[in-house]
Amino acid sequence: MNKHEANDVLLSTQIVIEQALMRLGYDQTMIELLKEPMRLLTVRIPVRMDDGSTKVFTGYRSQHNDAVGPTKGGVRFHPAVTENEVKALSIWMSLKCGIADLPYGGGKGGVICDPRTMSFLELERLSRGYVRAVSQIVGPNKDIPAPDVMTNSQIMAWMMDEYSRIREFDSPGFITGKPLVLGGSKGRETATARGVVIMIHEALRLKGIALENARIVIQGFGNAGSYLAKFMHESGARVIAISDVNGALYNKDGLDIEYLLDRRDSFGNVTNLFPKTITNAELLELECDVLVPAAIENQITEQNAPNLRAAVVVEAANGPTTLEATRILTDRGVLLIPDVLASSGGVIVSYFEWVQNNQGYYWDEQEVDDKLQIMMKRGFEHVYDIHRTRKVDMRLAAYMAGVRKMAEAVRFRGWV
Ligand code: NAD
Description:
The chain contains 15 helices and twelve strands.
């Protein structure tokens, strides 16, 4: 693979999907089917801007495969969204659902835009426009969106309202990650971070490292990264570095996380308020017990993987490590907990939210957390067991665990 291909998240995903299906004994037809999403919709969304002009945005919705059940996955608002990224993200969602044994296939959406430069009203019109554009292929029993990078519970509320208007009945189960008053689940906002915490506990146990005073480095201070920093800090670990898109903060004795949480904005920016101590690149190479990439793709590459000094890497972000870097880290004995396992807390609690919406009966936070704990641990044990017994790296083990149910469902339905 050349450098360009190594950073192609779709190509990397397809390579590992193919390896996983081959190891599981499936043939080329199954590989052909599951390497690509079954459906990709590209939409144009005209939005009236506050200055009276109209801007046309491009959006996508990708549905990987619905043999197991409706597809499920977030909508990302980001200037760097591409068709291939959305396709890869939908395949990763299938793998997360497969590992957690949820009754879903994977879906994902994205809109090329920069919410940081848009007003509240412009964002509302864009969110509603996106739902109108994809409404034919989504729905509580078809494809269920959720938040992702730079989308939040307010955006989910607008999207749910728009869908309910189109269908002419209240449809809370159309989307997850909603505000509590609109049928959101307790524990959803913190779910991804809670899941990562469970993975950190499991990984440190395997490595024989105590959590108390363990040195934690987190790249990204948004939904996933900031709650993770909070939970790690509360559990007695030392969060020695955090970062956002603008740079990183480092203190070898531990940062004042509560102070930083208080000051971060809704897009996860905080470092611009302080003199930066290090860069994002330097942060990744800090000596630590646990490194958590919780920002964007392709951060750990073959260039910096040899220099990483973490005992454990837990991928809260989707796709932060390239395949070559995965190989380097595995060879160096770094325990890597791959994204499709480590960041599945969000979709697991989204599933709980959908179940609660369907039942019209709502759980308390403890019940959500307890159930999340059980499912994440079971996923970890399953993946780790495949890693050990089949002698494959953790990423391939996670893909094998994640794709098996879908392939079986495809076969039972007689599609292949
Ligand atoms: P977010 O938008 O809330 O925060 C993203 C953070 O990353 C911000 O602090 C931002 O400043 C930082 N960032 C952006 N570009 C960066 C760069 N080039 N270098 C360093 N930092 C950068 O997003 P989030 O919801 O926390 O998601 C973060 C990652 O976790 C994404 O990969 C997302 O797909 C994944 N994830 C999120 C959830 C969820 O429930 N939020 C679930 C599963 C996976």
